[in-house]
Amino acid sequence: MPFLHRANTPAKRLRILGIRGVPAAHGGFETFAEQLSLYLTARGWDVTVYCQEDGDGPITEDKWGDVRRVHIPIKQQGPLGTILFDWKSTMHAGESGELCLTLGYNTAVFCGWLRMKGVTNLINMDGIEWKRAKWGRVAKTWFWLNDWFGCWLGDHLIADHPEMKKHLSTRVSPDKIVMIPYGSPVVESAPDEPIRALGLEPNRYFTVIARPEPENSILEIVKGFSSKPRGMTLAVLGKYDGNQPYHRAVMEAAGSEVRFLGPIYDQNTLASLRFHNLAYVHGHQVGGTNPSLVEALGAGNAVIAQDNRFNRWVAGEGAVYFKDAVECSLRFDQLIQHPEQLDQMRKASRARHTDSFQWDMILGQYERLLEAHTRKAPQLHPQVTSTRGTIR
Fold this sequence. Notes:
The protein is an alpha/beta fold. The chain is built from 14 helices and 15 strands.
């Protein structure tokens, strides 16, 4: 497949695959790709990001600021559409000869094409997707196989958590793996108008920001909070469907002080929600460095987290932890009855974020890793007659 000829392009070129596109509008990987692409282009890199579009038609290309975007239309919806998009993106990137960064391993089997074409490809291996309770047997098998494929086919692997590096080290040599966590901005102030518009009062609510899935402990959190009157609000973000059994169980367990706010994607509103809450409640049980927990640390939130090895490394000793709904209820009691503890926890969260999760630190580590592999990536410059718009 032909590409645009790039005259006088810089020697450092990168293609980012595995996400829906930039600017970010879907999740943590998209936010990371946006941050990384802007960081690298400002430092002289030529960055291309693959973007999934709904519909049919030819592949097109445009610029978002200094970031080059390749738009691939996909008619199919849902997981099948994502798989098809990943396949087309990988085929397209394979013809470029440029260094690739694949975010996630869900379709890592396709990376065999990049290896066949001699393209250097680094893979961020994300979390242990095949352990998530929401997936059926077929999906879990697919993710488990691609976990292995990613380990074999990636030229270098990125783990976002020390425990993820341990997991990957059972498949390949630790020398093939580097640990770089997720990052987030520091929130030092935020207006309270957005939260008041949602019917919330500063320091009178707890926040839960997570997909409503069993492995995110939403039911345990809601049950724990609703076990007695609190004089506070539990603000739960996410899309809840009463026809879905788990969603319905969460909604039925909620007391009168629980507010379901729906999905909120506006970054200013999210910053206000985090900055003005009493504490952030994090129930994730599976995965590595979760973006929502890192963002809570960056906002200086006191943190109540599900007790597991992933959350304990991210949030550190300054957080408090729970195993089940009963312990979660006790943690709510603890912070409401001892507000002096909140200041200590907030300082600990900011210190933990400063130490390990600031964007400049994270993105700088990525650049050094990419630079080390740039010398190994052949750079091809096929010619076409068009210089913009549709790629024929």
